Amino acid sequence: PGTMYALNEHDRHYLRGGGQDMRLVCVFNPPVTGQEVHLPDGSYALE
Protein backbone atom coordinates (compact mmCIF):
# COMPACT_ATOMS: atom_id res chain seq x y z
CA PRO A 1 0.00 0.00 0.00
CA GLY A 2 1.20 3.50 -0.76
CA THR A 3 2.63 5.54 -3.59
CA MET A 4 6.21 6.09 -4.75
CA TYR A 5 7.29 9.37 -6.34
CA ALA A 6 10.57 9.31 -8.27
CA LEU A 7 11.68 12.87 -9.03
CA ASN A 8 14.66 14.29 -10.88
CA GLU A 9 15.79 17.50 -12.53
CA HIS A 10 14.22 19.61 -9.76
CA ASP A 11 10.68 18.48 -10.68
CA ARG A 12 8.05 20.61 -8.93
CA HIS A 13 5.92 18.55 -6.62
CA TYR A 14 3.17 18.98 -4.06
CA LEU A 15 2.14 16.19 -1.71
CA ARG A 16 -1.08 16.40 0.23
CA GLY A 17 -2.30 13.85 2.73
CA GLY A 18 -5.96 14.76 2.60
CA GLY A 19 -7.69 14.00 5.88
CA GLN A 20 -5.21 11.30 6.84
CA ASP A 21 -1.72 11.48 8.32
CA MET A 22 1.10 11.36 5.77
CA ARG A 23 4.45 9.65 6.24
CA LEU A 24 7.32 10.67 3.95
CA VAL A 25 10.65 8.94 3.39
CA CYS A 26 13.45 10.56 1.38
CA VAL A 27 16.29 8.45 -0.02
CA PHE A 28 19.47 9.64 -1.75
CA ASN A 29 21.58 7.28 -3.83
CA PRO A 30 24.49 7.62 -3.51
CA PRO A 31 24.02 8.60 0.14
CA VAL A 32 24.79 12.20 1.09
CA THR A 33 27.40 12.95 3.73
CA GLY A 34 26.59 16.58 4.54
CA GLN A 35 29.77 17.83 2.87
CA GLU A 36 28.31 18.09 -0.65
CA VAL A 37 28.65 21.33 -2.59
CA HIS A 38 26.12 21.79 -5.37
CA LEU A 39 27.40 22.69 -8.83
CA PRO A 40 25.76 25.53 -10.82
CA ASP A 41 23.41 23.04 -12.54
CA GLY A 42 22.12 21.78 -9.16
CA SER A 43 24.04 18.50 -9.22
CA TYR A 44 27.03 17.60 -7.10
CA ALA A 45 30.24 15.80 -7.96
CA LEU A 46 30.66 12.19 -6.88
CA GLU A 47 33.71 11.53 -4.75
What does this structure look like?
The model has no long low-confidence stretch (mean pLDDT 79). The protein has no helices and no strands. 0% of the residues lie in helices and 0% in strands. With 47 residues, it is mostly loops. The chain has one domain (1-47).
Structure, briefly:
The chain is low in regular secondary structure and about 45 residues long. It has no helices and no strands. The relative contact order is 0.14.
How would the blueprint of this fold be written?
Blueprint: no helix or strand
Features:
47 residues; little secondary structure; 0% strand
The tally of helices reads: 0
**Record field, number of beta strands:** 0
**Tally of discrete structural domains:** 1
Shape: elongated
**Uncertain segments:** none
- Round the mean pLDDT to the nearest integer and report it: 79
> What is the gyration radius calculated from CA atoms?
14 Å
- State the helical fraction: under 10%
Residue fraction in strands: under 5%
**Distance, first to last CA:** 36 Å
Secondary structure category: little secondary structure
Q: Largest sheet, described in full?
A: none
